[in-house]
């Protein structure tokens, strides 16, 4: 099993550009999450989904959008990229609700906005 | 306020020594306390977790100590090895999962 797969691994964007970070999991997990990791700040939840068609905001949703059309895929869209969105983004999934269960993370997508 | 404070920010330990990382939380509604280990270029992975009905949980060289009254918990790595060099995150979960800022551990051989 591949687990959680994220693409791309690295990307440089110009201010104002848009892009989509892709995330797919093959573990048939209902719950999926997007986190951002900044140095010295831990991981902050951007959006999460409890199943296909259902999404909800996390701590830092501004400037991002998500969709969940299938159990496997949970893309994160950045609209009008800003330097503050320079970060490492992690997608995760869990068998049960991840706030009290194990999260399985992808390897991350490093985004730089210049 | 749902914060988790983690210390130290970084830690250097000799091979064979004990590594200790501490976390403190504020919200008494948290009922799940995991530790995640992250190697460079990889995503975090669950290392060990504890629920507040026990004061200690041990898995191999890794032990969580939990003090409910003080709202503190810690990770102890016994006989630390160079392969343990990584970033460690504590977290507290309930209706939210809040991560600490992370501790960069380096084990010198």
Mean pLDDT score of chain B: 95
The greatest interface between two protein chains, and residues involved on each side, is: A-B, 19 and 24 residues
Radius of gyration of chain B: 13 Å
The computed structural class of chain B is mainly beta
What topology emerges from the helices and strands here?
The complex is a heterodimer of chains A (about 110) and B (about 110).
Chain A: E1 4-7, E2 10-13, E3 19-25, E4 31-37, E5 43-51, E6 54-57, E7 64-66, E8 76-78, E9 87-94, E10 104-105, E11 109-113
Parallel strand pairs in A: 2-11
Antiparallel strand pairs in A: 1-3, 3-8, 4-5, 4-9, 5-6, 7-8, 9-10, 9-11
Chain B: E1 4-7, E2 10-14, E3 19-25, E4 33-38, E5 45-50, E6 56-59, E7 62-67, E8 72-77, E9 86-93, E10 97-99, E11 103-108
Parallel strand pairs in B: 2-11
Antiparallel strand pairs in B: 1-3, 3-8, 4-5, 4-9, 6-7, 7-8, 9-10, 9-11
Explain what you see.
The complex is a heterodimer of chains A (114) and B (109). Chain A is mainly beta. Helix content of chain A is 0%, strand content 49%. Chain A is built from no helices and 11 strands. In chain A, β5 and β6 (54-57) form a beta hairpin. The model of chain A has no long low-confidence stretch (mean pLDDT 95). In chain B, strands 2, 4, 5, 9, 10 and 11 form a 6-stranded mixed beta sheet that branches. Chain B has a 5-stranded antiparallel beta sheet with strand order 1-3-8-7-6, with no helix packed on it. Chain B is globular and about 40 Å long. The mean pLDDT of chain B is 95. Chains A and B meet through β5 of A and β5 of B.
């Amino acid at each position: 099993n591949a687990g959680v797969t994220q693409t791309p691994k690295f990307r440089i964007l110009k201010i104002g550009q848009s892009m989509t970070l892709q995330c797919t999991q093959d573990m048939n997990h209902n719950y999926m999450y997007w986190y951002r990791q900044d140095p010295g700040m831990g991981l902050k939840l951007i959006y999460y989904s409890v199943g296909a068609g259902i999404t909800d905001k996390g701590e830092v949703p501004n400037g991002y959008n998500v969709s969940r059309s299938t159990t496997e895929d949970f893309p994160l869209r950045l609209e009008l990229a800003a330097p503050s969105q320079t970060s490492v983004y992690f997608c995760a999934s869990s068998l049960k609700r991840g706030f009290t269960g194990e999260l399985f993370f992808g390897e991350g997508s490093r985004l730089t906005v210049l | 306020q749902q914060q988790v404070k983690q210390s130290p920010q970084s830690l250097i330990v000799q091979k064979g020594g004990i590594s200790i990382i501490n976390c403190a939380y504020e919200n008494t509604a948290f009922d799940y306390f995991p530790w995640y280990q992250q190697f460079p270029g990889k995503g975090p992975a669950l290392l060990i977790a504890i629920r507040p009905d026990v004061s200690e949980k041990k898995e191999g060289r890794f032990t969580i100590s939990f003090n409910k009254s003080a709202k503190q918990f810690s990770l102890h790595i016994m006989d630390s090895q160079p392969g343990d060099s990584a970033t460690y995150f504590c977290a507290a979960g309930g209706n939210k999962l809040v991560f600490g800022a992370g501790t960069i551990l380096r084990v010198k051989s």
